[in-house]
Amino acid sequence: MWSVKVVTMWILIIAIPIADSCLQSAIADIYTYTDERGVTHFSNVPTSPQYRLKIREFHFDYKRLSSGAYDNIIKDICLKYSVDPLLVKAIIKTESDFDPAAASVKGAKGLMQLMPETADDMGINNVYDPENNIYGGVKYLKRLMGVFKSDVRLVVAAYNAGENTVLKYNNIPPFKETQRYVKRVFKHLKEYKTNKGNYN
């Protein structure tokens, strides 16, 4: 059992973000009561009927959310363009970790981290809208598939480094960033395929 005594509320305000960062590793119901001296007591195991439930224990499966939230959109768009939906998921996982508001210092935005010029080329005007962003990313992948004759390694490298760079080397460019990127995408792709493409 653990308990915490808080005399002033500002301590509680500071403690909340710290506690939030630990939720995934140690989550428990939190009970509280304020005694006659104005001291607020917290405990995960109430020892008195004075305690009242303050925060209900919850288990949030972040991995399940990030792997399934956009599956229907991905499937529909990939079906239209004949692109492997698991590859798209692997790229999204690598690019933004399924955060539709993601933005890089280089200007890439959204789930599939579309650069402004790529978004324009693909006819996308709202890169932060998940469906629009995935549509633009898949459409771009389809174009890369044509350029590199469906060599997925080169397609993934081009998605990161640009098609002209890959054409220049006629291989995955000798850049650590791109090489790491390709490895990460294929790692996630293997994980999704091992899971037999099970869409949640």
Number of helices: 9
How does the helix and strand content classify structurally? Answer: alpha+beta
Q: What order do the helices and strands follow?
A: EHEEEHHHHHHHH
Span from first to last CA?
Answer: 37 Å
Number of domains: 2
Q: So what's the CATH class of the largest domain?
A: Mainly Alpha
What's the helical proportion of residues? 40-55%
Strand proportion, as a percent range, falls in 5-15%
Task: Write down the CATH topology of the largest domain.
Answer: Lysozyme
What's the count of strands?
A: 4
Widest beta sheet: strand line-up: 1-3-2-4
- Average residue pLDDT: 81
Architecture of the largest domain, according to CATH?
Orthogonal Bundle
Overall outline: elongated
Largest sheet: 4 strands, antiparallel
Rg measurement, Å:
23 Å
Low-confidence stretches at least 5 residues in length (pLDDT < 50)? Answer: 1-27, 58-66
Describe this protein with a few key phrases:
200 residues, 9 helices, 8% strand, four-stranded antiparallel sheet, alpha+beta
Task: Annotate the secondary structure layout.
Blueprint: E1 3-6, H1 9-21, E2 30-34, E3 40-43, E4 52-55, H2 62-68, H3 71-81, H4 85-96, H5 116-121, H6 130-147, H7 152-161, H8 163-169, H9 176-194
Antiparallel strand pairs: 1-3, 2-3, 2-4
Helix pairs in contact: 3-6, 4-9, 6-7, 7-8, 7-9
Structure notes:
The structure is a single chain. The chain is an alpha+beta fold. It has 2 domains: 3-60, no CATH class; 64-194, Lysozyme (Orthogonal Bundle), CATH 1.10.530.10. Helix content is 52%, strand content 8%. It has helices spanning 9-21, 62-68, 71-81, 85-96, 116-121, 130-147, 152-161, 163-169, 176-194, and strands at residues 3-6, 30-34, 40-43, 52-55. A 4-stranded antiparallel beta sheet has the order 1-3-2-4, covered by helices on one side. A hairpin with a 5-residue loop joins strand 2 and strand 3. Helix 6 crosses helix 7 and helix 7 packs across helix 8 (163-169). Mean pLDDT is 81; it is low at 1-27 and 58-66.
